[in-house]
Amino acid sequence: MGMTAADYKDHLASLLPHGPAWPRIDASWVQRLIAASAEELARIDARVDDLVKENDPRSTSEMLPDWEKSFGLPDDCLTPAAGVDERRRRLHQRVSWRGGQSAAFFISLLDALGYPGCTITEFRPMRANSKCNAAINQGGWRYAWRVNVPQAVTVKVLTVTGRCNEPLASWGDPGLMCLLAKYKPAHTILFISYGA
């Protein structure tokens, strides 16, 4: 907790030299000057405390746009944040996010994005020591993997009022696909399965 204006006034008054040129009466010009200086010093002291709060992405207010700009937010893949608390939460995730390429990393990323219970399936090509009934896959499957999202997300079905060129059904979350495509290993092929 910072010092108050009264604290600063007492400290400044104690620094004055002794003598008739430096009166100690509150109505004197010297004491009024000290009081005005003390108010400003107390205001600056309070702003320093605010600066400490602005240094943490979980409590920032004034510097939130600067923090977001530094860490590439708002993300093009996500819908705009609904309020300051959501913006702070996304910023904190981005600041503390270390990244990774393991299945555990992507499962935790999906969980943080609001997709709990997701699993990842990695495809492996047929090898000489594979089981006899193992599927024979193309060589490109070595780099393919699938995210299994347990609930169907944003399922749209054609209605009577729909246009004739609309698909009969569509599903998926374009934001999720965008994020996973952005952070997946570059040499891999990503599939997303909804309602698995």
Q: Which blocks of ≥5 consecutive residues have pLDDT under 50? A: none
For the secondary structure, the number of strands is 5
Q: How would the global form be characterised?
A: elongated
Order of helices and strands: HHHHHEEEEHE
| Class from helix and strand fractions | alpha+beta
Count of structural domains: 3
Written overview of the protein:
This protein has 196 residues and is of the alpha+beta class. It has three domains: 5-54, no CATH class; 56-97, no CATH class; 101-194, no CATH class. It contains six helices and five strands; from the N terminus they run H-H-H-H-H-E-E-E-E-H-E. It has helices at 5-14, 29-54, 64-70, 84-96, 103-112, 174-183, and strands at residues 119-122, 144-149, 156-157, 169-170, 189-194. The strands form two sheets. A three-stranded mixed sheet has the order 1-2-5, with helices on one face. The protein is elongated. The two termini are 54 Å apart.
How would you summarize this macromolecular structure in one to three sentences?
This is DUF2313 domain-containing protein. The protein is an alpha+beta fold and 196 residues long.
